[in-house]
Amino acid sequence: MTSAAPLSPSAPRPEILSEWVKQDRESIESLFGMKLEQIVELARTDEGKQRLLERMKQIDPSLNGNADKALMTVRENAEQAKKKESFFKKMLLLPVRSVVSLGKGVIRHPILTILLILATYGLVVWQLPKILGYLQALANANAGNAIGKTAEYLKSFLAFSKGTTGKAGEELFKRLPDTM
Amino acid sequence: MNTLFLTAEEQKTFGALPAKLRDGWTVTPAVIVPEDPEELIVRRGMASFANAELRSACERLAETKDSKWEQVLSSLREQAFTREELSEMFFALGVEALNRFIAVVLPSAKTDEDVEFLSALTQVRSMLSEVNGSPA
Q1: What does the radius of gyration of chain B's CA atoms come to, in whole angstroms?
Q2: Do A114 and B134 make contact, defined as CB atoms within 8 angstroms?
Q3: What is residue B74's three-state secondary structure?
Q4: Which residue of A lies nearest to B34 if distances are taken between CA atoms?
Q5: CB-count exposure of residue A128 (10 Å: 0-12, 13-18, 19+)
Q6: Of A93, A116, A150, at which residue does a domain stop?
Q7: Residue B81 confidence (pLDDT)
Q8: Does the pTM of the predicted model rise above 0.80?
Q9: Are A169 and B86 in contact (CB < 8 Å)?
Q10: pLDDT digits (tens, 9 = 90+) for A146-158
Q11: How far apart are CA B20 and CA B11, in angstroms?
Q12: Would you call A152 an interface residue with chain B, using a CB distance cutoff of 8 Å?
């Protein structure tokens, strides 16, 4: 089994510029004036990256100092927007029985409900230090067991995160391209 | 779909569950493709958490003392976890979070409902891994 290394506070922070992260295909395409697929394609070659960079400098003339990080963020954002559409499309194929089972299962495991809500809605509703404190308390109360390890992982993960209050997700199902 | 997509380690844990629970389930080896930190940070920035019921539960959770955590959730309905909401949550959280959830649920499975929940979690993890492993 391949396992993702949990992010730790001492690890170097991945160089993502949050101001270049847009919620979905529509907002990315609107910003760049081109299709998402074209952005992904351009980001694959040096010549294409140069074209993207020129467009980015039109969008933000003060970009110069962070050009490489911004370009990497835009590439990652475009790729993840496509992957999100792909994942949502797969989730549409998940049998109703499984969807119901997920909802019931989460409710039957209150500690999972708390972890799931904290790691997602927590960033919308709370300040990050408070969530981290809450997760640490859960980790301490469950030290060494699977719940404690989950709380520890989510704490390390959230320490690098940024939430939004937008509505891109609920709209995404309605706008999935037919050609994926 | 009576299939569980489990890693080798998870298969051992599943094999230790009572035969009555395991009966009727097919175990398929899971292919796990986790995200890297950059991907997860971008996904968080893209996420949309706009369900009023879940937001309200989270707000009440924020005002609750230690021993009351579970009580806050008593009014939360399973219907709040819609297909859309679950998709949004799991995409933002990634494969490793699902690994951790499965590690909580699997060893404590006691009923058929628990195994169905486990199966659903492993299905979502497999779909997410498949997306992670495919070019954009």
Answers
A1: 17
A2: no
A3: helix
A4: A4
A5: middle
A6: A93
A7: 95
A8: yes
A9: no
A10: 999 998 888 887 7
A11: 16
A12: no
